[in-house]
Amino acid sequence: MAKASVLIVPGLGNSGLDHWQSWLQQRHPSFIRVEQADWDAPALEDWVRSLEEAVAAAAEPVVLVAHSLGCMTVAHWALRSGSSVAKIAAALLVAPPDVESAEHTPPEVHGFAPVPTDPLPFHTVVLASRNDPYARAERSCGFAVGWGADFIDAGDLGHINTAAGYGSWPDGERLVLDLLRAVDSGA
Questions:
Q1: Phi/psi zone of residue 160: left (φ > 0), alpha (ψ -120 to 50 degrees), beta?
Q2: By its UniProt entry, which Pfam families does this protein fall under (predicted)?
Q3: Are residues 116 and 75 in contact, defined by beta-carbon separation less than 8 angstroms?
Q4: Which of 64, 88, 147, 186 is the most exposed place for a label (fewest CB within 10 A)?
Q5: Would you state the torsion angle of the CA atoms of residues 53, 20, 69, 154, taken in this order, to the nearest 10 degrees?
Q6: Are 157 and 110 in contact (CB under 8 A)?
Q7: How do the domains of the chain map onto residue ranges?
């Protein structure tokens, strides 16, 4: 179906076999996971470099599908990546964590602070839950505003991960496929 490359950008700990990102990748084997050297002790510069390498290796155009700390990786990368950012047609950023909040996030992710606040240079959709333990809904909406992104209030879905019951996630798949259709049609 898609002419665009899809890069899956997981967060802290990677997305296990029962996570919606893994389910999505199983359903669409052409989707490529961005791999990190250390999923449990994330280093901003290393994660940004891994994303840069994956984007550089992908065919144009690229759609990014990020979850949690992967969202912050995308935001940091987009604002420092140079010419490769032009390959990005769209991004879906699901459940961005508040990496500036010791109350909401573990210390392992605080190296991704401060949260970038400049507009991202590609079409972006931020989807967040009202009861995400890693970010208040107002904070997630604020990320979207700063990034110039469309915002989807997903209701009460927790962190939209395996612990919240999101292994298969048809609504998420539909959002990705809608982005791909828009890219393929030139919209």
A1: left
A2: Ser_hydrolase (PF06821)
A3: yes
A4: 186
A5: 130
A6: no
A7: 5-185
Q: What is the DSSP letter of 109?
A: G
Write out the CATH class of domain 5-185. Answer: alpha beta
Structure token pair of residue 58: 């992908």
DSSP annotation string for 141-183: HHHHHHHT-EEEE--S-TTSSGGGT-SS-HHHHHHHHHHHHHH
Percent of the chain with pLDDT over 90: 89
pTM over 0.90: yes
Contact between 129 and 93 under an 8 Å Cβ cutoff? The reply is: no
Nearest by Cα to 166 from 75, 68, 62, 42: 68
Task: Give the residues across from 54 on adjacent strands.
Answer: none
Alpha carbon distance 127, 144 (integer Å): 9
* Region for 186 from its dihedrals, namely left if φ exceeds 0, alpha if ψ lies in -120 to 50, beta otherwise: left
Q: Rounded distance, CA 109 to CA 12, Å?
A: 8
Q: Contact, 160 vs 169, CB < 8 A?
A: yes
Q: What whole-number distance in Å separates Cα of residue 93 and Cα of residue 28? A: 18
- pLDDT per position as a tens digit, 70-114: 999 999 999 987 778 999 999 999 999 999 999 999 999 999 999
